[in-house]
From TrEMBL:
It holds the Pfam family SLFN_AlbA_2. InterPro entries: Schlafen_AlbA_2_dom (IPR007421), Schlafen_AlbA_2_dom_sf (IPR038461). This is Helix-turn-helix domain-containing protein. Residues 18-142 form the Schlafen AlbA-2 domain.
Length: 285
């Protein structure tokens, strides 16, 4: 994903709500006071201890509809630099979070800082000597068993689903009205995923054709499908599938979500939601 001013504006235009993997912080969240730096360590460590994601420093939330972005709130780079933010994160979270990246988005003499935080295979402690997780838009202290669960992540696969749209070769007028829907199962864990199964629920509003009167259509996908050789998912790699549905060309007008659950070996299932408006039409490499 490319982080730039267009990406930030699209969050506002599409009213993308905060969720497990996304958090908005006004510019005042970054300050050189102890209580503020402790909050930074709590927020960032909670993402690493959960499923990873993005914290956007310099995005103001709507005063009435909380958790929705309202406007950019750039940070004075002379007072709060990218280097200072990186130093605070690295010095106040133990152990350090490998793979964390701070992306500065310049806006004149100021900037927005997007902190990209990976999901970690070890528990990270904030500056107040506590461990935190993401829960309902907030960071909350973790129980002992939750900390132990994180420590076991290195022994289990971690399969996550991503979706993308693709166009048909246009042989007919219908081909210009619909998209393919592709799904990719990525193993973000550090061990092989031998057995994989996914349950994908699509809102029927976005489908060009569907059977039944339900509001959702369910698709099941497994690497153990009959007649196919089981295809294990190596760490950091993925398998892909073209789902047997057609998506309406006006999908961007529909405020709907794909919900999914991914199972792999004996790991806890991953549960996620993907907004239709966030679907990419780019090609996976």
């Amino acid at each position: 994903m490319e982080f730039n001013i267009d990406y930030l504006n699209s969050l506002i235009e599409n009213q993308v709500e905060e969720h497990l993997n996304l958090d908005y912080k006004a510019s005042g969240s970054l300050a050189k006071e102890d209580r503020k730096t402790i909050e930074i360590s709590k927020d960032v460590s909670s993402f690493a201890n959960s499923d990873g994601g993005l914290i956007i420093y310099g995005m103001r939330e709507d005063a009435i509809n909380r958790h929705l972005p309202s406007e950019l709130d750039p940070i004075d780079r002379e007072k709060i630099s990218k280097e200072w933010l990186e130093q605070i994160i690295n010095s106040k979270i133990r152990p350090r979070i490998d793979g964390l990246i701070v992306h500065p988005i310049p806006i004149g003499e100021k900037a927005i800082y997007i902190v990209e935080i990976p999901r970690s295979d070890q528990a990270h402690q904030a500056d107040d000597k506590k461990y935190y997780k993401r829960f309902n838009f907030n960071c909350e202290p973790m129980y002992d068993y939750e900390i132990k669960d994180i420590m076991n992540r290195a022994k289990q696969p971690n399969v996550y689903l991503e979706f993308m749209l693709g166009t048909f070769i246009q042989h007919s007028a219908i081909d210009r009205q619909v998209y393919h829907l592709y799904c990719r199962a990525i193993n973000r864990g550090s061990v092989l995923a031998n057995y994989f199964n996914a349950k994908i629920e699509l809102p029927t509003d976005i489908l060009f054709q569907h059977s039944g009167r339900n509001n959702t259509q369910t698709i099941n996908w497994s690497n153990q499908e009959k007649g196919n050789h089981p295809l294990a998912i190596l760490p950091s790699l993925s398998i892909r599938k073209t789902l047997d549905v057609k998506i309406k060309s006006n999908y961007m007008l529909l405020d709907k979500e794909i919900t999914w659950t991914a199972y792999a070996d004996n790991a806890k299932p991953n549960i996620g939601k993907t907004k239709i408006t966030e679907l990419s039409t780019n090609h996976w490499i």
